[in-house]
Structure formats: structure tokens, C-alpha cells
Amino acid sequence: MICKMLVPLLCIMLLSHPVSGDWEIETLDSQGVTGYWTAIRLDSLGAVHIVYRDDTDNQLVHIYQGASGWESDVISTCDCWFMSMVLDSTDMPSIAYYEHTLGEIRHVFWQNDHWETSTVSQLPYSGSPYPRTDIKLDSEGIAHIVWCDTQNHDLFYAVKNPSGWDITAIEEAGYTGISPSLCLDSDDNPHVLYWNESMKAVMYAVYDGESWNIQILETNPTSGVFSYNTLVLDEEDVPHAAYEISGDYLGAVHYAWWNGTYWEIENVVN
Predict the structure, then answer these.
(1) Is this model's pTM higher than 0.70 or not?
(2) Is residue 195 part of a domain?
(3) In which element (H, E) is residue 173 found?
(4) What is the CB neighbour count within 10 angstroms for residue 155?
(5) Residue 245 sits in which domain range?
């Protein structure tokens, strides 16, 4: 778990025992205004990797547990927002983010001993909801990215190819694609959870190899555009979703899973 203070700095909280232990807190970066839009992963050896924005120096930073302690690496100087990160087969970060100043969805990854940056799509900033990204790597290490086009309010999905990106609009009707969460199943087919503001609904989309199938998971007329969503798939490729249902500044956390026929929905926190 990463926390951001009122005066932003980067800190990490580690649970010393999975059930009964205490939280151990380390401050990793306290120079200037830093620690924005963190993402965290554990590598194959259990070492922690974190990426975040250093706002003071306008940098995308990778900090990780090395052999002799914490080590850091400046990936690039950029106006990076809304990072999402996974680790590749070599335990190096593969990152999607929004470049706010230039108005671009970007992908950055480690290749041939240096950081490579690729522009996925042009996307001039047009206000909230922000163009949040999510990234996953498939069984061959190929990057898949989803994001919300905040200019046209559409949901887009991109797959890396040798010369660029194959980009598909998942849903373009109305005001949609907010806060997308991406998973890949055992056949590398994408599953996406997101919010459709026009329909006031949490939506679930899955690509079956030929076309996108889109379902309404749950509707709530009082919820707003800042509904946040998280999707995971279990070992049987069954989707499990957690999301916010809110209205009038009051919210609830719902958990849903697909039972093979319909979505089972539970109110977890009210």
C-alpha cells in the first residue's frame, strides 16, 4: 500500500506478518513535492517495485529493492499522470501513463539496457474525468492498454504491434469508458470493467476473439463520473469486480462475480 500525504512524499507500508503483524512504514522519497500516482508490483523474487511522479522535478521515477537496499532510476522527464504498471518477464516495469502537457497516452518499457517510450494515442486534455490508463502484458509479453478518451468520452483499447499500435474503440456511445480496469484471460483475450456515465452503469466488456460483448453489470442513477473500478480474473477466468457506487457524496463498495448465468452482487461497505 502506498500513501500520499497532504504535503506529498512517497512512503511504503509493509505488513510484517500477513494476519497479526504491524505495518512497517518507510519513507522512500521526501525531496520536494513527490509520490503522485504511484503503482506497485512485486517481482519474481518478491522485491518491491514502485513507479511514481516527482512533481518538483517533473519526472517519472522507478524505485525498487536492490541487493543493498532501495535504488531509484529516473525513467524520463515528463508530465506523467495516472500511471499503471506491470512487470515483464525480466522483472522490469512496463508502464502506461497520460502525458498531460503534450496530451498523449504513452507506453514506456525497458529494452536493450535503456528506457523506450512509445506514443499510443494523441489525447489533448479536456478536463475531468481524467484519462486513466490500465496496462497488462499477455503470454508473449505484448502490451495491452485501455484508457478513456476524455475529449470524445469513449473507451479505447490498444495492442502493441512491431510497428506501432492496433487501436480499437470498445464503446463510443454516449459518455463512457471512465476509470477502466483491464485483465487478460488464459487465451489473452481482454476483459474491461468501466463506468458509463450516460447510462449511469458499471459496464463489463470482453473480447471473444471476434467481437466485443458488453454487459451492464449494475446501474445506479445517483452515481457520478468518479466511480472507480477494479477487475480480476480467477484461475477459471471468472471475472470478479469491485467498484464504487456513490451519490450525494455518500458511497458504497460493491463486489460482483459472474456465476455463469448472471452477476452476483454484494454490498461490502456502505
Answers:
(1) yes
(2) yes
(3) none
(4) 25
(5) 132-269
